[in-house]
Amino acid sequence: MKYMTNFTTLSEEQQQEISEGILIEEYKKGTHLIRQGDDPTIKCYFVLQGCVRQYTIDESGKEVTANFYTEEQAILTFTFQDLSQSSKYALTCLEDSIMVVGDFDTEKEMYNQYSELETMTRQMMEIYLGQAQNEFTAFISSTPEERYKSIMSKRPDLVTRVPQHQLASYLGITPESLSRIKKRMNQDKRRV
Amino acid sequence: MKYMTNFTTLSEEQQQEISEGILIEEYKKGTHLIRQGDDPTIKCYFVLQGCVRQYTIDESGKEVTANFYTEEQAILTFTFQDLSQSSKYALTCLEDSIMVVGDFDTEKEMYNQYSELETMTRQMMEIYLGQAQNEFTAFISSTPEERYKSIMSKRPDLVTRVPQHQLASYLGITPESLSRIKKRMNQDKRRV
DNA sequence: GTGCGGCATTGACTTAAGTTAAGAATGGCA
DNA sequence: TGCCATTCTTAACTTAAGTCAATGCCGCAC
Q1: I need a labelling partner for A43 at 20 to 30 A (CA). Which of A90, B3, B31, B149 fits?
Q2: pLDDT tens across A123-163, in order?
Q3: What CATH topology corresponds to A2-141?
Q4: Distance B143 CA to C17 C1' (A)
């Protein structure tokens, strides 16, 4: 897979071998890959097509969207480390989706077989961690309106693909506020 | 080091060997470990004693605190991946501090020597990533006041160790707001 | 086709954060 | 010790987000 090539020094043949061990699955819209509180089915995904939402219901009963995953994004949620031994997040498909599915047991075997693969995973996680850091910092320092504008420019497809109230919960605001922000922005545009 | 034991299957002797290769440094309060825009000096730290602040100046000139690191915390900031080739964050000591300093070149050598070390690093990063995820989600769904209460309970030392305006910038609010939140909380307490 | 339920928008009202500015407290340093 | 700079608090005002409630709008099932 072309995605892999950027990260690794593995040979063509080795990449071929790994690719053959890979499992690709299709899921219908509305499918729960994992539910909150489930035993952690130690799995990870890579979205080839579709859209997956990661969310949690917090103590006060509010639903919080932690992320949306779309094409070419990996879903790595290491939530099971929590002593609780149950998943903190739920994953559901917002659309019919096609994904690469990996489970951590075969992953470990593969690490033994191809040590470069572990290096590659580590590097990917470093990048991930850096991105998470940057996103967090950006979130801290911005207002809801700025966050909406930011997502409009970085992931414009989300704004149309995803229900507004879920997008709002990802931006940390209420659906009403999101609605008003959009209204304000339209008015400003017209005025200019 | 006792911290390591929790993560690895390395033998005592091996841990001993690794520990000997480790560099420990002391820094005075106010020292910049790295400045924003510096060439990324590919280093990582582990705080034995003291307090380090990670921050960035954003486009609008506002200072944003991304994190505070205190005893027993590792500083892993993978910001250099940004094409920019310069560090997005600055790290400064808020107190006199003692830290383990690692640079990535010797780290790589050690990975070759002890492959378990890479596994250990990967596992630590998984946990890190999970924590970052959780912190982000918690941040999204909480008000400034809730965030302050949360930090009071999770890292009460920070509230006293760290300048208030820097704490405010970590909570995503202005110093004035933080001041008001504290005032409100005192009044509420007295009333009860 | 009709009706129902969930979703998006709008309005009125409350509340708290941002802004600006001023004063009080603190701490470092000569 | 005393001065200066920084930091923290307070106040008055503006603005936007939360809350509650009502309406309108699909989409889906029956």
Answers
A1: B3
A2: 888 888 888 999 999 999 999 999 999 999 999 999 999 99
A3: Jelly Rolls (2.60.120)
A4: 10
